[in-house]
Amino acid sequence: MTDTRTAPWAALILRLSLGILFLAHAGLKFFVLTPAGTAKFFESLGLPGGLAYVTIAWEVLGAVALIVGYRPRIAALLLIPVLLGAIATVHGAAGFWFTNPNGGWEYPVFWTISLLVLALIGDGKYALKASLPASRLN
């Protein structure tokens, strides 16, 4: 049984933590690796370099949407492909453990599941705008 008194707070905590993680992840690409360096890394994987810029912007916009609570269910679902792409191109072949060289798929899969949980549990407390009316979720 879901505790309706605490579930909105749990969703808020999950929403904020996921948003902060995505901001940190985008910050790594922007401030440490630099956008140009990230583009070169994407190219080394056989991906278009321009996809790096799209990914950074997607992560920042998704993070902000999660943090402020603007359609967080939709934002969570739209961030999942970023992580699936990271698993498919970098982390999947590195094995399970994230401590492996190139980081394994353990952490990105957990992150993906957390986004899915947020999309299922709801917007949480202090969301700016609900993603979907309750009647559409039943």
Fold and architecture overview:
The chain has 138 residues and is an all-alpha fold. The chain is 69% helix and 0% strand. α1 runs antiparallel to α3. The mean pLDDT is 92.
Describe the structure concisely for a colleague:
With 138 residues, this protein is mostly helical.
SSE diagram, text form:
Layout: H1 7-32, H2 35-44, H3 50-68, H4 72-91, H5 106-121, H6 134-137
Helix pairs in contact: 1-3, 1-5, 2-3, 3-4, 4-5
Keyword list:
138 residues
Radius of gyration: 16 Å
Low-confidence stretches: none
The backbone outline, from C-alpha atoms, is globular
Structural class: mainly alpha
Q: What is the number of helices?
A: 6
Number of strands: 0
Provide the β-strand percentage band. Answer: under 5%
Would you tell me the overall average pLDDT?
92
Order of helices and strands: HHHHHH
Main sheet overview? none
Regarding quaternary structure, what we see is single chain
Distance between termini? 17 Å
Helical amount:
55-70%
